């Protein structure tokens, strides 16, 4: 199948299919005229990548996960370790996002939101910009 068909079947845009091929996550065969040709195994790899990316795994972790997936002699402990490290990173990021939301909520609660020019949100942003 061609790249458009592979894109449709995998749910990965043609641009990202090319990108994954360029960075070595996917190795599509080439026809005699140089066009990429994708098979069912390529679609499975693209779906794997898409799902891993949907879970927020960075590309280097996706590369490691793909290698582990392809290695039938792997130990599941390595996969679990990678997944739990990602969980920890996601939880840290979620904590940071909650903290940002709380700060912004506090500022918004103290903004009158009327016709007056005073705005604690802008004042806080300016203060942070000036390094205060």
Could you say which overall geometry the principal axes of the C-alpha atoms support?
A: elongated
User: Could you name the ranges where pLDDT drops below 50 across 5 or more consecutive residues?
Assistant: none
Average predicted local confidence, pLDDT: 94
Helix content: 55-70%
Please identify the structural class as seen in this structure.
mainly alpha
Work out the radius of gyration.
Answer: 23 Å
Number of helical segments?
Answer: 6
Question: Which series of helices and strands comes N to C?
Answer: HHEEHHHH
| Total discrete domains | 2
Report how far the terminal alpha carbons are from each other. 59 Å
The spatial strand order of the largest sheet comes to 1-2
Instruction: Tell me how many strands there are.
Output: 2
Strand residues, percent: under 5%
Main beta-sheet strand count, sense and barrel state: 2 strands, antiparallel
GO biological process, one term: positive regulation of DNA-templated transcription
Protein name: Cu(I)-responsive transcriptional regulator
InterPro entries: CueR, DNA-bd_dom_put_sf, MerR-type_HTH_dom, MerR_fam, Tscrpt_reg_MerR_DNA-bd
GO cellular component, one term: cytoplasm
Describe the structure.
There is one protein chain. The chain has 132 residues and is mainly alpha-helical. The chain has 2 domains: 1-56, Multidrug-efflux Transporter Regulator, Chain: A, Domain 2 (Orthogonal Bundle); 75-132. It contains 6 helices and 2 strands. It has a two-stranded antiparallel ribbon. It is elongated and about 70 Å long. The mean pLDDT is 94.
